[in-house]
Amino acid sequence: MNKFIKTLSNDWFSASIVGVLPIFLATNLIALIVWTLQIPTYTMGLILGAMAAGLTDLDNRFTGRLKNLFFTLIAFAISSLSSQFALSHGWFIPLITILTFCMIMLSAIGQRYSTIAFSTLLMAVYTAMIYSPTAIWYEHTALIIIGAIIYGIIAMIVYLLFPHRIMQENLALYFEALGKYLQARANFFDPDEMGEENLPQKQLILGQANIGVMSALDRARTSLFYRLRIQHRHSRTRQMLRYFFSGQEIWEIASSHHTEYATFFRELQNTDLVFRFQRIIELQAIACQQIANDLRHDSPYEDQHRIEKALKGLSQSLNYHKENGIKHFHHLQSIADNLQNIENQLVQISDPTIDIKNDKKAQQTARLIPENISNFQHMIQAIKNQCNLGSPLFRHAIRLSVVVFFSALIAEIFYVEQGYWILLTAILVSQPNYSATKKRLIQRVIGTILGVIVGLSFPYLSPTLGAQLGLIVVSSSLFFFFKANKFGFSTFFITIQVLISFDVVGFGLDNAMLPRILDTLMGALIAWLAAAYLWPDWKYLNLHQSLKDMLVNSATYLRHITAQLQFGYKDQLSYRVARRSAQNSLAQLSSVISNMMSEPKKYQAALEFVPELLNISYSLSSHIATLGSYRRKNNELNHDIEFASIFFKQSKLMADLLDQMAIKSEDTEQTLKDINKQLQDFEEEYESKIDAQNLILLQQLRLIIQILPQLWIFVGMEKQYHKTHNV
């Protein structure tokens, strides 16, 4: 019996199904109330309230969910009453325009504020759609709030039944992304594609995988953060926290870059080593995928002994090649050590006896970066920092406000029946950038037309009220099931839901179909015109600032690594913040360059150097991450005083050089030559005296120095491009 219940819970109630359960149960309860009391005219208000609450349903602990629901209900009530009051007095257009700008700008504070604010904006539009001058002033607001309360209560019950399912799904997505990243890294060791001409494409694929890891990490971190704020942490939360930190370590280790690939490939092309490296990384990618699968099925991960055997074979092969005088053995051994370190993290995940709570040192450092800004002054400052045209958020807020103004104006001037569908469509398809807006509006139009075509069959079926309510339940649930990943499908089902709702409240299905299509087309057209001509994102691709941020954050990351190598390993929050900032800025640079490459005609001059600039930037990040992978071995480093004195001094100086590059200091080039000469002289003099590990670190520092002159050249090219094109 227990096995059946576990199978039912894990296989049938996946995270996707659990996410849909609240709206499914809430709409069922609303349908039952409407059908029992025979109050079909209240259907749309109750359903809209439940759906609006569902859009603000964010993963959190129980008390956090209660707090979110409380503030959401207050925001909904104020928004709905304000909208109704404005409609009755004729100043709805200025209200919705100002509300749009304010709600979008709240995104500067954090994703949770953004989600609630956007749903609050939708609430004002929903109220306008069902507004009737003859109704009691509080009627529609009350219906919407009751619907939201019904959803909120059911969502709490579902959470109590499945408290960890969403958190585990987010961790599973994180390890899935890590698996894809490792697979992209394994492609560098493909013996059949070892030419230098393939490296830029591999770097782009690796960059996309890196962005995927960052996105998944954000979701996992948010789920964990809100559960760690309570004093008594659940054992499952502590276990998931251990998974999360192990995943971060795997990511940093996998980002390491121990030598220039061109040299590496030439020396290994006809050996078994390249096959062994590739196979082990692929096995570790499979292991990450298996962890994701086990998380979804609530099963413990069991370490794959195949990786251990493969590592043993690699060690034997390395010893054989060492005896035969292979060059740069230390670099090869470093890669093998990193693969062993990844395996150690996988073994740690598979060991159920390890508990972060029992490790006092880990308990002190097991903190996560907050998702949102909590201090009121910091909130205001965060919003102020975004108030410039260089900010995508500010441009989106102004653009959407203009879209909302003209959409509402058209609806009122031309007395369009149910004209606020134009407004709703324009809001839902408008995105911060042109390509995303274009994709959404196409999906919205296609989904709406298909939904209307299917809706044409309903009058011929002559459904009863019970059947109509059942279709509303199904279409609402399917809308939530597809809304995150399949916007076109979600539009199709919400169109069906809206058409049936209109029929239930007595508006008439035939009267709703054609206006629904026309309003959608009009809203999509307004959104497209705004995205294409009002501060389009391609005019604000800030390559210059993105490159500067990458250099400055890489310098900060290098300083934190140097400090831990010198003074002792600590998995401090400040170190993780620095590492995350460096990864974020590199991803932002990659995103900007990717957008430029998608518009070759506009950025023809930049495309002569930006692909290589991105390639060198990834190499820099990988070399710095390699140094970071040795943080735990700082005691061994400090035993060699002569090595420590030059290594730490030059490492800090290199961090200063990266800062100087960001401002294009003219002294940088000569300083690079001086540092490289000093490190080279030290390596030649002490190569036989210092141990292998210190020699590897020294060589890593030199590898960074050796790519900096190239980076310096491209920084100069970018600066010249910025002067002439202001990009």
Automatic annotation (TrEMBL):
InterPro entries in the record: Integral_membrane_YccS, Integral_membrane_YCCS_YHJK, Memb_transporter_dom, YccS_N
> Which compartments does it reside in?
Cell membrane
Q: Name one GO cellular component term.
A: plasma membrane
Q: Mostly located where? A: membrane
Q: Which UniProt keywords apply?
A: Cell membrane, Coiled coil, Membrane, Transmembrane, Transmembrane helix
Family matches, as Pfam families: FUSC-like (PF12805), FUSC_2 (PF13515)
Q: Transmembrane segments in this chain: where?
A: 12-33, 39-56, 68-85, 91-109, 116-136, 142-162, 441-459, 489-509, 515-535
Residue ranges of domain Integral membrane bound transporter in the record: 407-530
Q: Where is the Integral membrane protein YccS N-terminal domain?
A: 68-346
> Where do the coiled-coil regions begin and end?
658-692
Topological category with respect to the lipid bilayer: Multi-pass membrane protein
Q: Which PANTHER family has this protein been placed in?
A: INNER MEMBRANE PROTEIN YCCS, P-HYDROXYBENZOIC ACID EFFLUX PUMP SUBUNIT-RELATED
User: What is the similarity comment for this entry?
Assistant: Belongs to the YccS/YhfK family.
Name of the protein this chain belongs to: Putative membrane protein (TIGR01666 family)
Species for this entry: Otariodibacter oris
